[in-house]
Structures are given as structure tokens and as C-alpha cells.
Design brief:
- This protein is about 30% helix and about 20% strand.
- It has about 180 residues and is an alpha+beta fold.
- It has one domain: 3-Layer(aba) Sandwich (Aminopeptidase), CATH 3.40.630.
- Strand 4, helix 4 and strand 5 form a beta-alpha-beta unit.
- Helix 2 crosses helix 3.
- The longest helix is centred in the C-terminal third of the chain and has 16 residues.
- It is globular.
- The N and C termini lie far apart (about 50 Å).
- This is N-acetyltransferase domain-containing protein.
- GO terms for molecular function: acyltransferase activity, transferring groups other than amino-acyl groups.
Length: about 180
Amino acid sequence: MAEREPYPELQQESKESDLSRLPNTTLISDPLPLPPGYTFVDSPPSLRTYLDLRRLTGLTPKTDAQGEGALSGSWVFCTVLYQDQNRPVSEAEVVAMGRVIGDGGWYFVIADMAVHLAHQRKGLGEAVLRRLIARIKEQAPPGALVTLSADEKGRALYRRCGFVESAPKSVGMWLDL
């Protein structure tokens, strides 16, 4: 009797998930300049700004305690400031943000991608995303896995930057507590 290979469906899945079939994603670390008046800041915004920008952009509202945990527990944070030429530098406002939650080894989650409505369609979201990915590439060991939850309106951006849907191999799930 011929010996059957154990778990042939897992071996088939392994062949189907060959990374060589994925699109070339080298473009995601290419720098993307910001328009005039905008500046990157590689640190989190204030708690109030973080919570307000989430709310204004349609992300789920969070409590102060949740926001404090997000700000202190992020591996990398990127914000974009806008400086109106007619206002003092001290009045620059945070108009975009994104952050990475990660273990520093191989697993990273991009979260809280948000661009203020008055500043959308200027490439700020893509610039933040590329900057976050570049930071992961610079600081993490080779072989990092970067994931995110893609709302409908952000999917085109994420695809443009090399992200692919994980289904049907795996499906994201969550548990609200």
C-alpha cells in the first residue's frame, strides 16, 4: 500500500502561497514628497488631536484611556502637519496620521490611517503609508509581515502600495470586548 503524504491540502496551500507570485512591491518604500506647507513628524499627536482626527475622519470613536494606550503602545507613529502661510508656526495643525503596532521582530499592523477631510486627495495618506512601511523595512529584521484592516475607501490605496487581500487563505476576524 502506497504511503499517503500527511495533510496534502496543507502542502497544496503552501505551493499556492508562494511569495514569488506576489506583485513587485518595491515601490512602497520609495519616498513620496509632501505638497508645500506639509511636514512629516515621526511622533504621535496629542491625545485630543488623535481622538479628534479619528472622529472627524469616520474612524470609530475611542475613549481617552483607549487613546492613551494607542499613543504609548505604538511601535512607530507618523503625523503630517500643515502650516498655513498666514499663521504662526505654533499654529501648525495635524492633518494626517498613521501608526504601526508591532513586536519589532516580524509582525506589524498598520492602524489609524486618517487624513482630515479638508486635506484629502493630496497624496497625504499614501505618503504616510509609504513612510510607515519604510520605517518597518529600516528597523525590522528581514521577513516582516505587515497587515492592516482595509476599509472600503482605503482599499485602492493599499493595493497601489502592494497589499493583497489574504482571503481565501485567511480571513481577518475581530472580537469587541
